[in-house]
Design a protein that fits this description.
five-stranded antiparallel β-sheet; 156 residues; single chain; alpha+beta
Length: 156
C-alpha cells in the first residue's frame, strides 16, 4: 500500500490561518511602534524649539521690553520656526526671512493646547511665556500621533 506524501488540505488551511493571524497582529504592533517613535521625535523637536526660543529671548537681540515677546516659536503645518521679535513688533509666523531655527515634525504629529492647534509660543526677555499679539499659548502642549496617548510638553 502506497501512502501519499505531502500535506492535507486541513493542515494547509490551519497553517495559513495561523500565518495570517500573526501577520495581522504584527502589522498592528508595528504601526503602534512607529507612531510612538514619531510622537517622541515630535515632542523632542518641540522641547528643543522651546529651549532655543527661551535662549533667544534671554539674549533679547531685538531689544524687546520686559513685557513684550522677545522670541517666538511658530508652528505652521508640520514646521516649527524660531523668530527673534523686535521691540514692540508683532509676531509674524508667516515670515520666510530671519528664521533662526527650523525643524520639520513627523507628518502625522499634532500640537495642541486646550484642544486647539497651537500657532506660536512666545517668550519675553526674562524667558517667561507671554501671549504676544498672535494669542500664543502659555500652557502645556499635547503632542499626539495616530492613536497614541498624548505626550505633554511643559513650556516652563
Amino acid at each position: 500500500m502506497n501512502r501519499s506524501r505531502g500535506f492535507t488540505l486541513i493542515e494547509l488551511m490551519i497553517t495559513l490561518a495561523i500565518f495570517s493571524f500573526l501577520i495581522t497582529m504584527g502589522s498592528q504592533l508595528t504601526k503602534s511602534w512607529t507612531d510612538s517613535a514619531r510622537q517622541l521625535e515630535a515632542a523632542n523637536l518641540l522641547k528643543q524649539g522651546i529651549s532655543r526660543a527661551k535662549a533667544t529671548a534671554l539674549r533679547n537681540p531685538g531689544a524687546a521690553q520686559s513685557n513684550a515677546p522677545a522670541a517666538a516659536l511658530c508652528s505652521s503645518g508640520q514646521t516649527l520656526k524660531l523668530f527673534s521679535v523686535a521691540d514692540l513688533a508683532s509676531i509674524n509666523c508667516a515670515a520666510t526671512d530671519n528664521i533662526l531655527w527650523q525643524a520639520n515634525l513627523p507628518g502625522s504629529a499634532t500640537l495642541q493646547s486646550s484642544g486647539t492647534n497651537i500657532t506660536c509660543i512666545a517668550f519675553n526677555s526674562r524667558g517667561l511665556p507671554v501671549t504676544g499679539s498672535n494669542s500664543c499659548t502659555t500652557s502645556t502642549i499635547n503632542v499626539t500621533v495616530g492613536s497614541e496617548a498624548s505626550v505633554n510638553v511643559e513650556i516652563i
